[in-house]
Amino acid sequence: MGFNIVSKMKLLFKISILFLFCYSGSAQTVDTSSIFSLEKYLGWVRTYHPVVQQANLLDAKAEATLQGARGAFDPKLFGDHEHKSFDEKNYFRVGEAGLKVPTWWGVDVKVAYLWSDGIFQNPSNNLPSAGQAVVGVEVPLLQGLLFDGRRAQVQQAKLMQAANAADRRLMVNDLLMKSVEAYWEWAFQYQVTQVYRQALALAENRFSIIKESYLQGDKPAIDTLESMIQIQDRALQLQGALQDLETTRLELSNFLWYEDLTPVEVTESLRPENMEVEGMNNNLITTDVFRNIASTHPLLQRLDVKQKELEIKEKLKREQFKPQLNFKYNLLGNGFDFSSASDDGNAVNQLLTENYKWGVKFNFPLFLRKERAGLELVQIEQLDTRFKMKNKELEISNKVRNIAQQLENTEELLNTQQDIYQNYQRLLDAENEKFKIGESSIFLLNSREQKLISIELKLNKLKATIQKLNWKLDWARGILQ
User: Fold this and answer.
1) Do 301 and 209 have their domain in common?
2) Which residues pair with residue 116 across a beta bridge?
3) Residues 161, 35 within the same domain
4) Do 339 and 428 meet the contact criterion of CB atoms below 8 Å apart?
5) Residue 420: alpha-carbon gap to chain centroid
6) What backbone phi and psi angles, to 5 degrees, belong to 278?
7) Does residue 57 sit within a domain?
8) Per-residue DSSP letter, 146
9) What sections of 123-257 are H helices per DSSP?
10) Which of 17, 42, 219, 297 is the most buried (most CB within 10 A)?
11) Does the pLDDT value for residue 415 go beyond 70?
12) Are 118 and 160 within one domain?
C-alpha cells in the first residue's frame, strides 16, 4: 500500500514539474526592466490620439467661422449689362459696374459707373453721352443703425472661439480620465501577476522541502500531495491573472497612436510604474475651489458662452422692434465730372444739392407678432440655459466633494489594510516557525499564506483606486489637460 502511494506521488510530482516547465517557458518573454511611466504614456495620448487631433480641429473651425462672418464686410465688385436689338434697330443698351463697401457702422458706400444709349430706352435711364459716375451711401436711420445681423454674426463667431476652446478642454479632460483609468487598471493587474508569481515560487520551494522531508521519512505523503495541489492551484491563478493582464494591456493600447493615425501596441516587455500613493492634499478642496468652478470647468464655461450668444441674439431681436427706415443718397457726375454747370454759389453746396439722387425706404409691421415671439423664445432659452448652468454647477460641486470624500475614506482603508497585512505577515512567520518544529500542518500554513495573498491583492486594489481617484478629482474639476 505504501509502495502504491509513493508511486502515485512520484507520478503527480513529474506531472507538476512538467506543467511548471511549460508555464515558465511562456512567461520568459516579460522583461521587467522597461518602465512605461504614466507621464510618458499621457504624453503619447496628448500628442497623437485622434480625439486630441479632433479637438484641435475646433480651433481651426472657429477661425474659419470668424473669417466667414467678417466676409460680410468684404468690398464687392458688381456689374450688369443689358442690350436689346430688334429689326436692325438698337433699342437700348444699359449697364452698370462698380464697388460696394459695407462698413461696421451699418453704412454702405457705393461707387459706380453707368452707361446707356438706344432709341427706345426708358427715359429714366437717359444719361450724359460720357456716361455717369455715381458716389453714394445707404444709411439705416433706425433699425440696423446701432446693431444688425452682420455685426451679430461677427460677435457670435468670436464667442465660438471661446466655446470651441471649452469644448476642446472638455474632450481632452474626458479622454485623459479614461486613459488614466486604463493605465492604473493595467498597473493593478501587473501587480496581481507579481503577487501570484511570488506565491507560486513559495509553493514550489515548499514542495521541494516537503518532498525531501517525505523521502527522509519526516513528513507524510499527504503533505506532498497537498503541496503539489497548491502549486497547481497557484499556477492556474497566475494563468488567469496573466490573461487579465493581457486584456488590460490591449485596452491600454486603445489610447496609444502615432503619426498618421498609426495604432501603437503596448508590448509585453513594458511594465507600469509602481502604485505607491502619497497623502492627499486636502488644501486643494477648499471653498475657493467650489467658488471658482463656474469659471474653470469647461462645461460651465461652455454654458456661459451660450448665454452670451443668447444675449447677442436678444439684442438683435430687440433691434427688430424698430421701424426700417433706410436713406439713400447718390452724387451724380457728367461722366466722371462732379462739378456743377452753374458758377453761382458755393461749389460744395452745388455738388450736394444739384446733381444727386436720393430716396427713403420705410417698413414697419403693425402687430409685431413675429418680433415679439422671437424675443420671447430667446428669453425662454436664456432662462433654460441659466437653470441648466446652476444645476450643472451644483452637480459638479457635489461630484468634487463626493470624490474627495471617497479619496479620504479609501486612504483610511488603505492604512487599516496595511496594518492587517503586517499582522497577517507576523502570523504567517509564526506559523512557518511552528511548521519547522513540527507543531503545525501544511494545511494551516497554506491557509495563512492564502489569506496573506488575499490581503495583498486588496492592498494593491486600494492603491490603484486611490491613484484613479486622485486623477478623477481633477477630472471632476475639469482641469485635466
Assistant:
1) yes
2) 94
3) yes
4) no
5) 41
6) -105, 165
7) no
8) S
9) 149-215, 221-253
10) 297
11) yes
12) no
* 4-18, 118-132, 330-344: least confident range: 4-18
User: 436 pairs with which residues across the strands?
Assistant: none
Whether 10 shows a pLDDT value over 50: the answer reads no
Distance, in Å, from the CA atom of 471 to the CA atom of 187, rounded to the nearest integer, reads 15
Nine-digit cell at 112?
A: 459706380
Residues 285 and 408 in one domain: yes
Does residue 389 or residue 32 have the better pLDDT?
A: 389
Q: How many CB atoms are closer than 10 A to CB 171? A: 17
Alpha carbons 196 and 238: distance in angstroms, whole number: 5
State the pTM of this model. Answer: 0.80
Three-state secondary structure call for residue 83: strand
The Cα 98–Cα 79 span in angstroms is 6
Q: What is the pLDDT of residue 395?
A: 92
For the cut 80, the answer to whether the pLDDT of residue 328 exceeds it is yes
Dihedral sign for Cα 309, 313, 315, 316, please: positive
Q: How many CB atoms lie within 10 A of CB 69?
A: 19
In this prediction, residue 349 has a pLDDT band, given cuts at 50, 70 and 90, of low
* Domain-located, residue 202: yes
pLDDT band at 343 (very low <50, low <70, confident <90, very high): low
Flag whether 305 is in a domain. yes
Q: How many whole angstroms separate alpha carbon 16 and alpha carbon 479?
A: 53
Q: Which three cell numbers stand for residue 110?
A: 457705393
Range of the domain at 204: 2-49+151-312+378-477
CA dist., res. 261 & res. 264, Å (int): 9
Here the CATH number for the domain that contains residue 284 is 1.20.1600.10
The pLDDT value recorded for residue 184 is 96
Q: 20-34, 75-89, 128-142: lowest mean pLDDT where?
A: 20-34
From the number of C-beta atoms within 10 Å of its C-beta (0-12, 13-18, 19+), residue 468 rates as buried
Q: How many structural domains are present in the chain?
A: 2
Rounded CA-CA distance 311/318 in Å is: 10
Q: Same structural domain for residues 347 and 424?
A: no
Query: What is the residue-wise DSSP string for 305-339?
Result: HHHHHHHHHHHHHHHTTSPEEEEEEEEE-BBTB--
Query: 415 and 454 share a domain?
Result: yes
Within a domain: residue 348?
yes
- How high is the pLDDT of residue 9? 41
Residue 29 has pLDDT above 70, yes or no: no
The verdict on 430 and 464 lying in the same domain is yes
Contact of 288 with 392, CB cutoff 8 Å? no
